[in-house]
Amino acid sequence: MKLNSKISLVLVAALLGWMMTVQFTSINRPKLESSPAGDTLQLTTELKQETERQQFLRSQIREIEQKIADLQSQKGNQSQLVRTLAEELERVKNQAGMSEVKGSGIIVTIEDDFDLIAVKNPEELDMNRRSLGDYLYRVVNYLKGNEAKAIVVNNHRIVSFSSVRTIDSNNLQVNTVMVSPDKIIIKAVGNVEQMKVGMSIFPPSFAEMGKKFTVQEVGDGSLVIPPYDDDSVQYEYAHPEGEKKL
């Protein structure tokens, strides 16, 4: 094998290792600010971090794809190695949330229960609903801790740099996109029985917010989890300055 080919393979292996390390980081916990100025600053900071990390991760995927294309153009006994690297690239893209996945899993639906709302004190209900983002964060973490391999919240893929936060009692934000808190649908592919056990503790907490918490099992392998959505990052407050900045 030529020296430059060896160097290319070392670079590919190093990039794959780095990306695997990035993807094992936990989801950033949402933080709530008490003042409008603080909230705007928090939004700006989170958006900048998410934008730059997304761009950096995608640049690494493109670089690995180019390395594989270069190796594929060469002749000799490298064909098996190329196939191995291509398979590893696909695995990393799946773990990075950049590819659609399909399998068995569960669908968690969290929606307003008007019978519960009718018997709740309005002020207490409003206060409890301000914790919605924190509890959704807990739901996602419990899913991950119970062998979920891919998760979406209202069709927004949860990846290592995702955020879930409550803006106020009537506004929820997932991956910097505003979504309605009236009905939230979380889909997760993974160990169905384990995930169901993890979800069993949450109905009472969401009932305090006037919400019904139900879990539906999809055991036939037909549950589809879409990839991370490029359009979910808005560039209103910050723009990426370069692909290789964190």
UniProtKB/TrEMBL annotation:
Residues 47-81 form a coiled coil. InterPro entries: DUF881. Pfam families: DUF881 (PF05949). Gene3D superfamilies: Protein of unknown function DUF881. The keyword NAD does not apply. Keywords: Coiled coil. Belongs to the UPF0749 family. This is DUF881 domain-containing protein. The lineage of its organism: Bacteria, Bacillati, Bacillota, Bacilli, Bacillales.
